[in-house]
Each structure stands twice: as structure tokens, then as C-alpha cells.
Amino acid sequence: GTDVNAVCRTADGKYLVTADDFGKVKLMAYPAADPERPAPFKDYVGHSSHVTNVRVLTGDRHVVSVGGHDKCVFQWRRDFDDQEEEAPETFDPEEDDDEALGGFDLGQLGVEAAAEGDEFQAVKPWLGALEPPSKPPAQDPSAPRVRLELEAAHGARGALGRNALALNAANDPVWAAAGLGVILDRRGDRQAFFAGHDDDVTALAVSRDGRYVVSGQQGKRPKVFVWSSETGKLISELPPYHRRGVQAVAFSPCGTMAASIGLDNDHSLCVYNTCLGDWSDGAIQAWSAVDKSKVLFVTFTGNDDFQIITGGVKTVKFWRLQSRNISCRKGIFGKIGKIQPITGCVMVGGKAVTGTASGALYVWEGNRVARAVEGAHARAVTCLNFADGGGFVSGGRDGRVVWWSPEVEQLAAFDLARLEDAPSDPVPVAVDIDAEQAKVAVGTAGAELYELSVDSGAGCRLGEGHGGRGELWGLAAHPSDPDQYATAGDDGSVRVWSVAGRGCLRRGRVSGEARALAYSPDGALLAVGLNTGGLEVLGAEDLEVRFRTKEAREWVQDVKFSPDGQTLAVGSHDNNIYLYSVKGGDQFDFYGRCSQHNSYITHFDFDKTSQYLRSNCGGYELLFFKVSSAEHLPGGASELRDAQWATETCVLGWAVQGIWPEEADGTDINSVDRSKNGKLLATADDFGNVRIFNYPVVEKEAQFIVGKGHSSHVTNVRFNADDTYLLTTGGNDRTVLQWKLT
């Protein structure tokens, strides 16, 4: 009852802003009155500790929040992207969570006044703690002679993208993960990638013949690409048109036309064509504003009367396309249909079948509802796709996937929650069907991919990732087994993965959002730091909780065992590092607190003797402590200049000072890791980059190689036990990437 410290309603009565103990400012629809169903929200992070107060300023264009320990005042600006944004008129929390969130976005701290400069560049307390070793190691500022090859992506667009999964001509699944298009070659048991996007892939569709993929992304000037569904090879980048992002894409039945819906105020429709038929010459044919209300889908009909259908929260329109001219007529619900959000559309026997927020299916003749199939799903229809030879498949928030005949009669149904290997979140958000083999491909809101057999009713898990609406931070490589590593995310799950098998070996759960993860030196235990400040220790084999405690008052960003396995340290955003003596797999005694930092703890390392600890914080400090007593060592920089550190994960230090560009913000680099052989250093930053340097990195102009695949900030990076692979996690994209080093 004390986690939320302040709330404030906007003057128009549509939104509620909250401030909480976890450093977050949250935005949600007002009222948020259902105690049984938490209100959907967007959260914004900037404060390092509890946010004590929040207020919306006159005009609802700015929000001001104040932090407790950080003593900072943040001003947040509503981002209109150079246009006036109209708030949505209605909000259906069951069908469209994002509709509640308006156009608020994180503005600049201190705002529209001229920038006051970067504190990281102006104030560098860590530089005073830099002492080179008495015998500095050889330095090589050239780029390392290694190659970084993306081998596997674990994750999926999940609840944020409708139908971002389809089958190609070989009936292999194609889906969106982070900034990637992913193709699973099941015969070769490998993945191929399209990596042309530079932000989250938000929409994806495969042509009827299975040869081509069209995909769109988010961003102020979002890109739309056409690429090979079998190899991931780029075919063409379509001419730019949209702003802010692409909500939906589709191919025409003949495959020579494509359409996209934008996230601008008018949710504009853009139609493309190819004269050559291979999309190497893709061009814009026509465009039009669609509706101020959110548009969720676009579908080609293949008919002469209306060629395109669009629909969404308060709109369904039927479009006529004549050369470069485009016009529309509104859909008529009449006495048969009920006006409500239309969530998707599929063409069956020349007629449109649409899904609704109530779970019904509407069959249209022309632009009028001719038949309603009530109770098709118990809750909102989330996805639809056609089946070769007639019929279609649907998915709903009731967790069911249903195969329908061309006459809209049920042929088969699956309850995802009842599968033997059930998904963590059984809501299907994308479906496609291989009618010849009677197999259905499903993507869930929990970022899990399944193949369902119509004949047996069984489900086979094809892939998975971390789901939910939070972020992914926790990553740890097994200390001795190069084949295993573990991840933990805000979805509360802990997963152990196989490098060689390119899949998940086992999964467990903790009691809250997981933010930090560490193996014990013998690999028998996994320590998990939570967003609440809690600590839980799991058995690495069974992922059962052996111990839990909570000394920290803010979220935990780093946890580590000492090399001798006798100490466990927990770094929290309450500015402290908590030390526990390890008495066994289920007994940990708190004995000390390192409390000299002036800001939240970001990273720390033990030395190889397990006697000393060095740490970084949000105030750009590098401090040293004695492990046995938690005593601060003011002269630690000199005394420990020749210390051998067991790990190199501190982002501020003598051996990593060259990773920071002159223009960098102190929070731009989120994680670093030194290879086990001490030759390489990997970094993960806020711009989706994974970089590898020769170690140590002392010179400012040190060269590097870079890997791209994440669409947002890369939160963590680790080498596996024998330095043959690099593992990374994405924050908002919640995707785990596995890179091969050669």
C-alpha cells in the first residue's frame, strides 16, 4: 500500500499519472477502478529511486515529477512529433491497451530550455580513482580480428504486434523479434535473419505464394522493406511515407501490391505496387488518411468492388482503388452487427470475415454485415489468417485457436492453456495455417511460438522468449559449461538456455520482476535480484527457490558471488551494496552494507582473492571496499592498482576508459564484459549496438567491431565460458541474441 506515492489526473479527465517507489512515472487511462484487473499503463524511467510526487501542468502538455533520494525534478513533455495529436475518443481495455496511453512520451530533462551540457562530461569523479597498473598490459587500439555472427534470436514481437508471424513457401515460420525478421529453417535447424530495420519491427506479412515478406517498423520516419522469406535477403526498401511507425502491412492475393497503415494522427494508408512482379521496383501507387481512431489492420480483398479493407477501434472502411485514385465507403453494421472495435479481417470465398472486441465474427457482403457468428470466441478476437483451399483460422483472448470452414463452421479448436507444454501467456496474437499438413502456427502474447497438430491436438513449442510489457535485464553465463546461460526478466521468469541447441532447457519463476542474475562459482545456484529490492536464490538445475530475503529498499541492478563462493553481493538503487555470507545452498546471512556511494549502484566486481570489491554508481563514482567488513577504502585506487579482478563488468575504470565517446552520456553504455581469456571486451549500449574491443580499452580512439539486431537499449552482455559465443539481452525488445565469435 506504500508503493504508489502520488497520483494526478489530467484536466480533461482522460488520463492518470502515478509516481511510485520503483523510480517510475506511469500513465494510464482514468478511471483505473477495477481491483481485479490492473489498468494497462506506459511507464517512464529517469529517477534513480522512489518518485515522491507528480503533477500534470495546465493544458495537459507537461508532467513534473520529483525524486526522493535523487533530489531531482523531471519535466516530461507530451511528444506530438511536430503535429497536433488528438487523444483517442474511446478506450476498450480488453481489446486495445495502447489506446489508453495517448501521445505522452519522455521528453528532455529540464526541457525546452537550451541543453545545459552533459553531467558525465562535466563531472567525472571516477577519473580521480583511475590508477594504471604498475606494469600496464600491452594495448592494441585496432579493431579485434574476430567476426560477430548472429546465430539465434529468442523472443518475438508478442502482444505489441498483430499477426507478426506467418509461414513461408516452405511452411517455415517467419516472425518479428526486436529489430529483426527471423526465419526458422526447421529442416536445417537454424535461423536466418533480415537485419535491415533500425528500430522495432512492428508489422510483418508474407505474400500468398510464400516468397516475399513486407515489414514495417516504428520511428519518426519508419522504414518499410520487402525481403526474401527463405533467406532474409533484402529485395527493396519501399519509398518512405509514414510517420511515427507502421501499425499493419499486407500483400494483395496476386502479390504485386502491398499496403501499410501508419501511426500518424490520421493512421494513413499507403498502397505500393511492383510492375516487374519481383518487388525490386516497389513504388507508391496511392495514399489516403484513414481515421483519427486507431486502425488495427489492412486487408486486400481480391474483389473488383472494394479492393482494400481497413478497420480498428472505431472504424471499418472499404476502399476502391483506381490507378492512383483511392476512395472509401464506411462499413454498415445494420441491425445484425454491433458497432464495436473491429480487430482483424480475412477473405473467405470472396467475402470479408472480421473479428470483433466481443469475440463475434462478422461476415460481410460488400460493405454491410450480412451474418454474425456470436460466441466464436468468449473474449476479443486477436488474430485471423486464411487457409489455402478455403477456410481460415482465428485466435482470441480466451486462449483458443479455432480452424473454420469456408462456411464459417468450426472444424477444430485448441485451448492453449490446456497444452501439455502450455505457454506462460496463452493469448494468441498471431496465427497461420498449413492446411495441407493440418498444422497451425501460433505466436502468443508471452513471446512463445507453437505448432499445433489438428490431427492429434498436440502442440510443439518452436521458440520462446520473455513476454510481458516490462524489460529484460538479467543475464548470466554458466561459469564452466560453455553450452549454458541463463536470463531473467520483468515477466518474472528465469530461463536456462543451450547454446548448441539454440533453445530453452528449463524455466522457472520468481516472486517479482527480475532485474539481475548471477551463477555461483560451481554453477549450482542462481541468484536473482528483483525490482522490489528482493533477493531470491534458485537451484540452477531445478530452478526452485532455495532462499529469499529483502534488505534493499530499491530495485537491484547487479548481483555477484565472490570467486571463492563464500560471499554474495547485491547492488541496489538505494545506493548500497549488501553483503551476505554463503552458508550453503539455502542459507545466506546478511552481514554488511557498502554505503559510501552517492547514487544508485550500477555495477561491481570482486577481485580474484575475494577480499576486495570495486563498484560504479549513477553518480559516476568508482569506489573500493573490503569484502570481509564492507569497509570503504579511500585509497583503494592506489592500493589495488595491481589487483587481479575476477570479472570486468564495471563500465567506469582504467581498463575500460576508452569505450566512452566524447559525446557519450554516462548512462549510454549499460554493460561490459571481459572475455575469459582476457583478450576482448564487449559493450552494450543504449543505441542497440553490441561492440567488441581489444582489451584493455584505454585509448579514446580505440577501434571496434559492431553487431546490430536489438531495436532498443541493450541491457546486458556476457561471453560464454569458453569465449566462443557472446550473449546479449534487449531491454524493451525483450529479446535474447546469441552471437558466434569466429
From TrEMBL:
SMART domains: WD40 (SM00320). WD repeats lie at residues 549-590, 707-742. The keyword Ribosomal protein does not apply. Residues 1-77, 472-741 form the EML-like second beta-propeller domain. Keywords: Repeat, WD repeat. InterPro entries: Beta-prop_EML-like_2nd, Beta-prop_EML_1st, Quinoprotein_ADH-like_sf, WD40/YVTN_repeat-like_dom_sf, WD40_repeat_dom_sf, WD40_rpt, WD_repeat_EMAP. Gene3D superfamilies: YVTN repeat-like/Quinoprotein amine dehydrogenase (2.130.10.10). Residues 191-447 form the EML-like first beta-propeller domain. GO terms for molecular function: microtubule binding. Transmembrane segments: none annotated. Pfam families: Beta-prop_EML, Beta-prop_EML_2. The keyword Cytoplasm does not apply. This is HELP domain-containing protein. It comes from Heterosigma akashiwo.
